[in-house]
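User: I'm putting together notes for a lab meeting next week and I want to include a structural view of one of the chains we've been expressing. I don't have a solved structure, so I'd like a prediction I can at least talk through. The sequence is below, exactly as it appears in our construct file.
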Amino acid sequence: MEKCKKLGCGAVVVLGHPEYYPRFGFSPSECFGISCEYDVPKGVFLIIELKPGFLDGASGKLEYHSAFSSV
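Assistant: Thanks for the context. Below is the predicted structure for the 71-residue chain, given as structure tokens.
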């Protein structure tokens, strides 16, 4: 997370366990009006803002880089 901040990233997303990642500040993507391109259960696509307010007014579907399509 510190590296992402140093690189200037405004937010980070993960597909992960909904009871694990919130302890690090991640929230369900639904809180930001953002969905995942993959058909995943509600609550497992999580986001953290590294810059407060970075996602204000954001909405839509996040698409992963093509490198993730074979995972």
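A couple of points you could mention at the meeting. Residues 2-70 form one domain. Helices lie at 2-6.

User: Perfect, that's what I needed.
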